[in-house]
Amino acid sequence: SVTPAFPEDTEVPAGGPTGPEDDETAPPTDPPPPPPPDTGGGDTGGGGVEPPPDPSPVDPGVEPQVFPGFNGNIQDAINASSDGDRFSIPPGNYSGFNVTKSLEIWGNNVNVTGGAPVIRISANNVKLVGFDVSGGTNSYQNGAIHSDSHSNIQLINIYTHHNTGPGWAFHSCNNVLVEGGGTAYNRQAGYNGGGTSALTVRY
Question: How far apart are CA 91 and CA 98, in angstroms?
Fold first, then answer.
């Protein structure tokens, strides 16, 4: 165990000793580094700037093949798919989309930006893996990734940043998993709009 510098009930006078640095035999210590500059990041809910992102990826399994005949538009791939399909998106920059079917979509090295929300989930049994999501102009209750009244949603290794609202938001959803990835410079990391059950977040 660690012995405190003073017993718990000992009053230390102002200007009095505070530890080894006041011992004449103690080596000099360097002054503390200056605080980091305010970078203008978003409010985290408690005020201040969110820390730099620290993505913590998890193993999501085997990546599926790129959507056959992909034409550069994620929404077109979703519209042409069928419930239960699994496919990936080639690396690149894309506009937002609405998942209207039960799909597993991978987007490693895929940047999706813009919209309110950037990604909407409008179906049950949806799994998104690896997307970078930014530039959402959503309000404080509506996430850059957003869903209302749907079940069995997984966001795996998703990185949300620089959105005007939360990185994600779920309203009256059930069985939602947010795992891996990271979040920074959003209004807040995520938002449970109420009525959502079995919401698990593991960064």
Answer: 19
